Structures
1.
Amino acid sequence: MPLLTSVSGFPRVGRDRELKKAIEGYWRGDRSLDEIRKTASDLRRRHWKLQADQGIDLIPSNDFSYYDQMLDTAIMLNAVPQRYRSLSFENPEDALFAIGRGYQGERGDVTALPMKKWFTTNYHYIVPEIDEATDIRLASTKPFDEFLEARSAGIDTKPVLIGPYTFLKLARDPRAEELDIDRGLINAVSAVYATILTQFSELGASWVQIDEPYLSMDKEPGDESLFTSLYAPILAAGRGGVKVLLNTYFGHVADIYERLTLMGFDGIGLDLVEGRRGTLEAVRRYGVPESTTLVAGLVNGRNIWRNNYADSLEIVDELRSITPNVAISTACSLLHVPYTTEGEDALGQDVLKHFAFAQEKIEELNEISRIADLDKAGRETSREMSANRSLFDGSRVSADPDVAKRIDSLTPEDLVRHPARAERQRVQREELGLPLLPTTTIGSFPQTREVRSERAKLRKGEIDQKTYDTFIQNKIDDVIARQESIGLDVLVHGEFERNDMVEYFGQNLNGFLFTRNAWVQSYGTRCVKPPIVWSDVSRARPITVRWSSYAQSRTSKIVKGMLTGPVTILNWSWPREDVSHEVQTRQLALAIRDEVLDLEKAGIRVIQIDEAALREKLPLRRSDWHREYLDWAIPAFRLVHSGVRPTTQIHTHMCYSEFNDIIRDIDDMDADVISFEASRGDLVVLDAIHDAHFETEVGPGVYDIHSPRIPGVDELVTRIREILEKIDAEKVWINPDCGLKTRGEDETWSSLENMVEAARIVRSELGR
Ligand code: GLN
Ligand code: ZN
């Protein structure tokens, strides 16, 4: 049997972010709907062709999305809440965007559906809403349209769907703590998938891939039977027609693998990168049914380093000794890696040869499959094989002895801040003189076109450093004056100097590399360009001290310094694979610690260390949480700030509110204040904060910055009152739920004015 190749999914924004540009142009009114449709279909065709040219056997379709594949799935299942239907858009795209980003206009005023991180990635999906009124039925032709579109381009594809189990596990009922997945719902959802399979059989598709990443999570009682009930009708519908590939990723599925082998799937996709150990053991133990193709996810879809062929081939050979029906695949969708290393020549060939982005990963699949079919001698003499081997021979970079020495000399005391927090809160209250319910922002102010264009000019050498610095200073002057005028209590300098909260820091650290165009979708049309950790990390020079102290010199109010924390820097970079995450984080923590101490020396009294992404890499399985992550990630954060004076107030910020389950660990970061997202999510976290006797002061975001909508004063007052029902007013801060850099100027200032006004109203209600 030749080794088949399969791709789980391909990035959709395009090599030059064409889709992003088109859609944002449409939102601004510069492009027509037909133009974005054309851009979308051109991209799909190009991506299919690219894979076909590399001889990929199972090429995905329906992996495209204008906004998010979970949202598409909700629409496909007709799970669209009434408030969006009532907007009565003629065009489906407009309806979709309204759900993804909210809508405020002549048709009505609705907030967006909440967004959450997709498992351990920095991709955000729209959380579907299901309630009693939801009438599940097949309500979209998207999967078929894209399949037929590919066929008309001469390419046979494997349609990809998010599976019913993952969909239901991630959906929520806005009125209940948990969605009640009853018989009726199970039958309805599974009937839709069955219909889809029948239709694909009729269309002559050979494979359909159903993604069930939720299988990599711990199972609760009832999960396994939920899964089997959902799939019985689906598998029955597929029988004799289209083949069903059940695809899992982001971890191992050892706890359900045996069951999967008994259910009659034509293919089972396994993640042999992140889930390697558990999954391989399960396969060895339970084998593979004769009629099932094992789709081995060997090419990492989450990092950008070259695949180690020798390593992959060893697994392929072992799997082939268990079953002849083996395919190799990406370990998850390539959505989470950039498009191509082409055009990154500035990095030099010696560096670039170590990287594989989406396009190169497709080539890797092709090469591995060809090498796998060679005999021993053929493999020995294969040029591709020896080129690949040379990437992993010897050491790619040499260690920095100073960094190693500093890490070796750390003691447990370096991970503890003194005095205890309650004492610090007392002295800080005196020192800072803030009102009850202090108002602040999360750091960035709108990165307008003007700001980006000045930065581009500097990069291209069209303006000199001095002109650019003066420009930034003027921006700071304005933003400080304006924050003062609307009455915010703790000001920020606005982060105008930063392209990105991670890249900017990376640029001032030793050990990082940067790409020109390696963008990855984060949510909707937003993309990020993570830097690459190439070697040992240390601080090259002071990073933010100059801007923070300039801002402080312009006002008598307190200016909050603004840093990115070590865990987030690592999580939003491409980490090394030759050194553990723990060690890389520690190196980063020492670098940021230097910056914290310099800021304090420069007279900055409040310092925020953002850990926007701390939860992102929390292992999917609870049993791994502490051992594999929190036990080093939380101390690394403490290492950053443990050296400051008691009066210096340390803030942190997180871009989500799902930390009920790690609330003690968050408290153990020992920050003085934490702000987090809560406006778009639910309020459960407030209960958890209350119940856990959480010590850190909290700023639950009072409005959603991911939407252009301006929250009214009344709405904000209500929101603050809700917060105060759960949390002692002495411990509450009032702030938006994240940085404002993606927002427009006008909406930002109107929203903040309303926020400050709302805080004033509530303060006076409290008699303060
Ligand atoms: N300080 C950053 C900002 O305001 C935080 C961004 C984030 O949490 N993603 O932009
Ligand atoms: Zn945030």
2.
Amino acid sequence: MHTASFSEQLSPIEWGPLLNSTFSSVLAPFATRKIAILVDENTHDHCLEFLITGFDALAEAEVIMLPAGEENKVLEVCFQVWETLTEAGFGRHDLLINLGGGMVTDLGGFVASVYKRGLAFINVPTSLLGMIDAAVGGKTGIDFAGFKNQIGTFAAAQVTYIDTGFLHTLPSQEWTNGFAELLKHALISDVQLWQDLSYIQDVQKELQLETIQQGVQIKAEIVAQDLTEKGLRKILNFGHTIGHALESYYLNTATPLSHGHAVALGLLLESKLSVEQATLSKQEFLSIETRIKSICALQIPSDAEGLWALMQQDKKNDNGEVRICLLPRIGSCLFDQKLAFEVFEKVISGYCS
Ligand code: GLY
């Protein structure tokens, strides 16, 4: 695997096989400290052994296992992790390693960032979505009161290690989830990447390492300019205002939407809004619609009011007004655009089942 590294403003990202990385030397100062590894049921079964057997420093690590699934990215689960850390006597100078997808790195980063006012943590994302988005950029968070990432912090991992070897442990649906975030990165900033991605039929078989790196680099470059989302970073939320509302809408129902599926639908609907309210052409929109329909089912409820209520909790809103991101064209993105309910309702009604 080609190994490269680049830094963002706060947290370094390192590419390539973990065994050839700086991981051992980053662990070295913790030799006389306590180390915990946070996993979920999936990474416990498929990734943990590799980590523990590959690195002597982790032989005695405390393993903390979370139940898998977004519905567990909640405060009650944080309590359990804090309890375990407290009972095991973890102090501020010890270390937490988050080994997993977005749920593990979001929750683990949050838990660490407030435990004794800040426990060092390392992210080892194991899913495509984690590598391309969640584990990069210093956002941590949990869901609360049915709203996505309602509670969280900006906190930098010591290092984020992206070893795409972990992707071989992923079921195919997980590839689609990460692919949705990659499509987002292309739509907001790179028309050539968008065209390259439009040829991919089987994400698991055809997605190249270089393309994943491109996706991560786009995110890292945006974050480096606006770490705490005062402005530009908001464009990384394209597709997420409606996507998060859809994900919350179906959370704890018989037909939950994965984050990637919800984001893919959000990209579609916010692109349609970009035709209505910005200058995205119908032809460009059709290419987006075709791509999204090829990767997921259009599970969109006919409850514009219900979705709108959820969107009113979005973190990008201002003064009670819903603000979204819009595409003037593929490869460019505007943020802080006001959205009126009537326009949203019209777009939703064209798609709902
Ligand atoms: N996932 C959007 C961001 O990190 O800003």
3.
Amino acid sequence: MNEATQRLFFAIWPDASTSGALAMLAQQVAAESGGRATAPGNVHLTLAFLGDQPSSVARALSAAAARISAPAFDLVVDRVDSWRKNAIAWAGVQSVPPPLLELHQAITRSLVVSGLEPDERPFAVHVTLARRIAAAVRRPLAPPLVWHVTAFTLVASELAAAGARYRVLSSWPLVAKT
Ligand code: 3AM
């Protein structure tokens, strides 16, 4: 019998106020671009997509993630942009904070020790705001949205009648600044 699998990804999940602000931005950008806004509860920043994985791999990933010690940081979301190739509009940053790269690298190492192949493509820091856009958008976001990142999460993507639904399985804290 095949072992049950879950479609997994590591992400940074917004706190309630950041989630609300990003969901509002998603509505605006969807209207500007003629796309479909990301559902309010689904807004996130993907750190690594893992695909369908059996529970044994999920456990190994969780154990490796629990050993990560990386600093908390602020993410200054200050631009909106889009990709023509997959018709997505997204929010991003002019400057990627080094602790985010550090976290991404630590997660890549967790994948490797869990027996997974890391994504070879460069890490594209983005929060998907709208899909199936008809017109490109590219503009600064002023004032910027300051996202206090204090944890990272392992998330399962589940298909529901209304589309993908994301469920946070576990969260691990980042080390607070002193
Ligand atoms: O952060 P976003 O919303 O861009 O696009 C999917 C979503 O990213 C991405 O993983 C996140 C959670 O579903 N995703 C889905 N399939 C993927 C794949 N085969 C993928 N990323 C890379 N390769």
4.
Amino acid sequence: MTRPIQLPAWRALAEHQRDIANIHMRDLFATDPHRFERFSLRFGDLLFDYSKNRITETTLNLLLELARQSGLADRIAAMFRGDKINLTEHRAVLHVALRNRANRPILADGKDVMPEVNRVLDQMRKFTEAVRAGRWRGCTGKPIEAVVNIGIGGSDLGPKMAVKALTPYTDPSLRVRFVSNVDETDLMQNLEDLDPETTLFCVASKTFSTQETMVNAESARAWFLARVRDSAAIVKHFVAISTNAVKVAEFGIDPANMFEFWDWVGGRYSLWSAIGLPIALAVGMDRFEALLEGAHQVDEHFRTEPFERNIPVLMGLLGIWYGDFFSAETYAILPYDQYLEYLPTYLQQGDMESNGKSVDKEGRPVDYETGPIIFGQPGTNGQHAFYQLLHQGTKLVPCDFLAAAQSHHHLGRHHELLISNFIAQPEALMRGKTFEEAKTELETEGVAGEHLLTLAAAKTFPGNRPSNAILYRKLTPETLGSLIALYEHKIFVQGAIWNINSFDQMGVELGKRLAKTIFTELDDARPADSHDSSTNGLINHYKSLR
Ligand code: G6Q
């Protein structure tokens, strides 16, 4: 495949960037009263405002042309068709099938996956309804009061983010917790106040061989047995979510209590599968299905809308515009919605594990920038932490601002204050404040002399800093499903244009392997000497301190 930078549209964009680099968005808004209408889209009642970007009609046309020349349409069709687009692992990528509420046949290896998807959804429904209604009882006949999900990475971040996001829909009599870190503190803190007789563990691992998860699951089982002293009780307190039935049985979990998913579900795209069981336990299966529905609607939008009205396509293209043509290295996700507290972390994995690649699909080193560094925090906390750099630092940081028009709570004027910040920050980033404006302001405050000029310089904001704003009615299960799917497809669009495999994660392997060697060396009384001097030094210093 042609390298992206050799595509005519890429070259045209590089040239165009030089034309536009010195144009200020202030002027673009001033000269076009219809800029907002021109550069915003609706998806249901969700507004995607991308008018505060350093783009003109020409930029947009060139970006859309880049998408066309990259064969994006074929790539999208290939994913939905079940082609093995995860080339290194020779797997289809079919998280869209998990939320295919239209039930249209989707084939993996020539076989429609929908009957299996629906079978597991039924199993999840029966189980979650039994637990939530108190029909599923612990070994001493008490109903379940706490669920502890043990998983890591894709088997943790998605459900954890979604359970937090959907807190207003959760049943307070059923606490849902997440343990992921191999650091014993995580497990111990989470178990501290739990009663084993009313606790249900979900061991979530696609492979059922991930070190952290298996060690935590074994320690959880030991904690449970030390208190309950009856291994027959495990069946009532441990369920598994996995693709590996053999290992699940070896661990001692009844295969009847295993919720299956498949190799065509990537870890970081798996919250729609049985990995979402803790979500369904927390909010009920109807709401879990509403989450799937919200994502499905976005899938249909992504699959069928022309690129110029296709939100994930535009999100992806705008990211490429800044990353590859303005040398932006980071991207901020800024939810003005406390319930989306974990969204930045979730998308950090989604984006960075998917597109943090430096060889293309043909194995050639890339000669362009790929995935950005994702970071963020809920507004307004971030404003009092890192926004200084966003406004006045030397780096260009494109941002996504997200907010709900309606809060789940009603407390004085809190929500209006939150929303005014959500609207003001993108405005400030875009407009900035000129030296002259700063100086005039200071003069009216009575500042004069040399100090006036220094202070005016410090109070100058360059502006012209791009952002998107996503404003939705309320954070419902359906809206959450849509939001996540928008980002998933944005990541897909970028991976397709960069011609990289967004669906493997080879970069996590090396450290894991080295840790195994070091783990055995920690037991050795002799000083380590087989590594570089720093690694040896760390091992030996650890041994001297422990
Ligand atoms: C995600 C990755 C990774 C994975 C974890 C857990 O896309 O594959 O984060 O989810 O390593 O893997 P298991 O589910 O197999 O334990």
